[in-house]
Amino acid sequence: MERLPAAEGEPIELEDVLLLADGEQVTLGTPTIPGARILAQVESHGRGEKVIIFKYKAKTRHRTKRGHRQSFTRLAIREILTAGQEPRAAKGRRRARRRAAEAEPEGEVVAEAEVPSSGRKVSAGSTGNTESTE
Q: What is the pTM of this model?
C-alpha cells in the first residue's frame, strides 16, 4: 500500500472497502461497501525497487534517463468487518505463549546422541591444511 502517515506497530482502520468475499458470498461495492472496514497494524515502511524510465527520440540525440522508487507501508490485516460488526477483543498472544511454556516439563531429556570423533583437531580459522593429530 502507498505510504501511510502512521508509526510502526500502530493500529489503523481502512474504511474504503471495494469488494468483500466470504466463502461463496461476494459483495461488490458501488464504489465502496457502506459500513465495511478493515482493521490492520502497520508492520514497516519501505521503498520498492527502482524503476528506470528511459525516453529516446531517434535521429535527434535525445535521451532522458530517470529513476523512481515508490514508498510503501506494509500492513498486517488483523480483522475484516462487515456493516454493524464490532471488532473482537484483542487476544493476549504473550499470555498464551507464557502458559504454553509453563505447561512444558523442564529439565527432562528424552534422548542423547553421541557424535563419533575422528581424533583430529582443526583450528577454526584454517582451510584444512594445518591438521594435527593427538
A: 0.54
